[in-house]
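Researcher: We plan to redesign the surface later, but first we want a full-length starting point. Tokens attached.
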């Protein structure tokens, strides 16, 4: 059974950093592109970042460009999101997603506040 499990959320300060991880299981991780999305309270879920299966193609949403870095380790079946220069508007539940269908993680809460 395919599964995605996120971790690493928590409370960050404005200008600070947090790192998220998403561990995949139940499928051949290295064959799939992966994405991060986020959903703030009262808002729709929005795209954050995309990484291709071999890390050759990486795309960021404009609000996080230059601050967030997506990466992956296919040997560890894990995709990462390094978040630097945090802003209060980054507060959201962050989700890992395999973009070929409906596979989502359970989400991890990120709160940016002083």
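Model: Full-length starting sequence:
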């Amino acid at each position: 059974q395919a599964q995605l499990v996120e971790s690493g959320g928590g409370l960050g300060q404005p200008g600070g950093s947090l790192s998220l991880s998403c561990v995949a299981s139940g499928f051949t991780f290295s064959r799939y592109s992966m994405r991060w999305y986020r959903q703030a309270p009262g808002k729709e879920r929005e795209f954050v970042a995309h990484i291709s299966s071999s890390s050759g193609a990486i795309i960021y949403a404009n609000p996080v460009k230059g601050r967030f870095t997506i990466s992956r380790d296919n040997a560890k079946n894990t995709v990462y999101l390094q978040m630097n220069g945090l802003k209060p508007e980054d507060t959201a539940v962050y989700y890992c997603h395999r973009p070929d269908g409906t596979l989502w993680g359970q989400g991890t809460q990120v709160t940016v506040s002083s």
